[in-house]
C-alpha cells in the first residue's frame, strides 16, 4: 500500500515560488479536507422530503452515529444488569446435572451440609448503607421493556429466617413491582426490625404486621391488609401474587409476566369440591349469597379487579364475616369467591372446579402433601414436603410459577441449585435469548382462561 506523502513547507529555506506553491497546496488540502468532512457528516444524516408537494426538511438526525450510541448503551445496560446478579457458591456441584436426574451428582450434593447464614440482627448493620446493601444481588433496574410495562404486586407472609426471606426477595425483586411483606410479630424483635430495615432501602416494599395463627382468619386478614396497602400504593399493577417465605420461583420475572398476560384476565386460583373438608363449615348456616364453596391452595394469582371486588364489594364483606367462623379460612375464602360466577367476581372461573379427578392443573405452585409420600424425597412438616436435592429433577419442566417449600438449612444445595438455575435463566432474559423457554399456548388453553368472568384485562 502506498504511503501518503506528508507536505512540509520550510519558507525560510526555499525560493519564493516554492513558498507560493506550498501556500496554494495548503489551501487545496484544506478545501479537500473540508469537502471530505462535509460528505462524511452528511452520510451520517438522513432527510425526509416532499411533504405537501414541496421540499421540507422534517428531520436531520445523525442516524448512523446514534445507532452506534444506542448499541453501546444497550451493551452497557446489559453489562450493568449482569453485574447485579448474585454470585452463587455451588460448592463444586453441577446443578444442571442434578435437574437432569444424575444420581451421582445428587448424592454428591446431599453430602454438602455447609450453610452460610446471617443472624437476623445483622440485617440492621447490613442496611445502614442502602446503596451497598442493594448490591448484594437485587435487580434494581428493569431487565426488559416488557417487564417494565407490566408491574406485578406481591403479598408475602413470613414467619422465620430472614436469611431465606432475603434469598426469595432477591429472586423476585424488580423496581417496577410492588411488595407487601407481612411480618408475624411472634417472630421476634430482631426479625421484625430486620425486615423493616431491608424495606427501608427500597421505595416499593411496604411492611405489614398482623399476628398470624395457623388455620385461623388472621391468615386471610394478613392478605387483605396487604392487598389494601398495595391497591392504594400503586394503580399500575394488573395481577397480585401471594407467597410464603419458604417458597421460591420456578420462573423468572419475565416468564411470570408472559404467563400472567396469557391468563387474559382470569384468576389462577385452583380449587376442588370433592375434597373440600365439609366439616370446616357444616356447623354454620348456608351463606346468604350465591357462593360456591370450594377448597384450594392459599397461594394464588388474581387480577387487580378481583382485589378491588374483595376489598369493596358488600357481598365479599358478608362472605368474609361468614368465613371467619370456619376453620382453615385461608383455603376457601378467596378460592370460593374466585369460583362463584353468579356473583360476577372479576376473573372468576365459570366452569366446574373439577376437570377430571383432580381438577384443572394448578399453575401457581408446585407442592407435595403427606398423602402423596411417593412425591417427596425430603421430609414432611405439617403434611407439607420440605424438598430436598433429589426432588429437583421433578421440577425441571413444570408449568408452575413457584415451589413450596424449601428450608435453607435442610439439604442446602436444593435451594442453592434453584438459585443457580433461576439466575442463569435471568441471565438469558438479560441477553434476550429466552423466547422458547415456556409454552405460552399451554397457559392460554387452560379451562379457567377460556371460561371466566371478564376483568378488563382481556385481549
Which tags fit this structure?
single chain; about 450 residues; alpha/beta; 5-stranded mixed β-sheet; 3-stranded mixed β-sheet; 18 helices; disordered N terminus
Structural write-up:
One of its GO terms (cellular component) is membrane. It is a single-pass type II membrane protein. Belongs to the glycosyltransferase 14 family. It is found in: Membrane. This protein has 459 residues and is an alpha/beta fold. It has one domain (77-450). It has helices spanning 16-43, 63-84, 95-99, 103-110, 122-126, 130-134, 145-148, 162-172, 189-199, 218-233, 253-262, 304-312, 314-323, 333-337, 392-395, 413-431, 440-444, 447-450, and strands spanning 45-46, 61-62, 152-158, 178-183, 205-208, 239-244, 247-249, 271-272, 295-296, 301-303, 365-366, 379-381, 384-386, 402-404. The strands form 5 sheets. The protein has a 5-stranded mixed sheet, sandwiched between helices. Strand 12 (379-381) and strand 13 form a beta hairpin. Helix 10 (218-233) crosses helix 12. Residues 1-23 and 42-60 have low confidence and may be disordered.
Number of strands: 14
Low-confidence stretches: 1-23, 42-60
| Largest sheet: number of strands, sense, barrel closure | 5 strands, mixed
Mean pLDDT: 86
Helix residue percentage: 25-40%
Principal-axes geometry comes out as globular
Task: Walk across the major sheet and give the strand order.
Answer: 5-4-3-6-10
Number of domains: 1
Rg over C-alpha atoms, rounded to the nearest angstrom: 30 Å
Structural class: alpha/beta
Total count of helical runs of at least 4 residues: 18
Distance between the termini: 63 Å
Q: How much beta, percentage-wise?
A: 5-15%
Pathway: Protein modification; protein glycosylation
GO molecular function, one term: acetylglucosaminyltransferase activity
Family: Belongs to the glycosyltransferase 14 family.
Membrane topology: Single-pass type II membrane protein
